[in-house]
Design brief:
D-Maltodextrin-Binding Protein, domain 2, 3 domains, alpha/beta, DNA-binding, 12 strands, DNA binding, Arc Repressor Mutant, subunit A, 289 residues, globular
Length: 289
């Protein structure tokens, strides 16, 4: 079976983008060349990896199984290239990020100052890829925000900070001019949510008002998309109270929620053996170092 790294790079691009055109642009190849790479990979594996239609691209069960294996293979190849360049002695930490915040930037600034020998990479993962990227070895750790104290069970979750929550609304929304709102005020609102049901349920389960769950519109992959959709009047969203410092923009308002559970940011770590540099970074993030 003759597989190449290019096959796997093309597969992962389509798996992550769920769109051949977007994946082709990301890889700087033509759509036809990308399609041929995927077809070639499927022929070699004797398995369909994607369900294609005129409107969507979805992973098959075989495709889902291949994603973490492909990431591990690409990671191993990257390590070989690093070794070949004579950089193997330089520690590298790849930090995954769900959403940015002033506290995250402060931690990274401190870590860069205290660990000057480390080569840093920050990967913007959005809402959907944090767990897969960490489990598949694409990142070494991930900063993940959750509402309440409800971390994902698959990882070691180190709590870093808590903050109040704000309602993200279009500027013309009836609640936009309020000094604050309560969860009961949000009954009947449509919440811009993410495409992953597990992530959505964990985020919104703590926000049920009077026993009824929120109405979700699962269309976003990251907070930038949430903001654009809120600004367009498609719905509202919940964010940590620090969001306006990083994400303020015309057409979107942020209103404090008086009785919301806190938004907790965790440092997610795989449970297996970790590098000394990663352990030191975790101590810096928690303020222990």
């Amino acid at each position: 079976m003759d597989l190449t790294i290019q096959h796997l790079r093309c597969f992962l691009a389509v798996a992550e983008e769920r769109h051949f055109g977007h994946a082709a642009a990301r890889l700087q190849v033509s759509s036809s060349a990308l399609s041929e790479q995927i077809s070639s990979l499927e022929r070699r594996l004797h398995r369909p990896l994607f369900r294609r239609s005129s409107r969507s691209v979805e992973l098959t069960e075989h495709g889902h199984d291949l994603v973490p294996l492909a990431r591990q293979a690409l990671e191993a190849m990257d390590e070989v290239v690093t070794w070949a360049k004579g950089e193997v002695a330089e520690p590298r930490l790849r930090v995954g990020l769900m959403v940015s915040s002033p506290r995250f930037r402060a931690i990274m600034a401190t870590a860069a100052r205290r660990l000057p020998h480390v080569r840093w990479q920050i990967r913007q993962l959005g809402f959907l890829r944090c767990s897969d990227a960490l489990a598949g070895g694409e990142v070494d750790c991930a900063f993940v925000a959750e509402i309440g104290r409800n971390p994902a069970p698959a990882f070691e979750a180190v709590p870093l900070w808590e903050e109040g929550c704000v309602l993200v609304t279009p500027s013309g929304h009836p609640l936009a001019g309020r000094s604050s709102v309560r969860l009961a005020d949000l009954a009947g609102e449509t919440f811009i949510s993410v495409e992953d049901n597990e992530v959505s349920e964990r985020w919104y389960s703590a926000l049920s008002a009077e026993g009824s769950g929120p109405r979700l519109l699962p269309v976003a992959r990251n907070f930038e998309e949430v903001l654009e959709l809120c600004g367009a009047g498609q719905g509202v969203n919940i964010a940590g109270e620090s969001a306006p410092e990083t994400y303020a923009r015309p057409g979107v308002s942020f209103v404090p929620i008086a009785d919301s559970p806190p938004a907790t940011t965790y440092l997610y770590l795989r449970r297996e053996r970790r590098s000394a540099a990663l352990d030191e970074f975790a101590r810096i993030a928690t303020g222990e170092d």
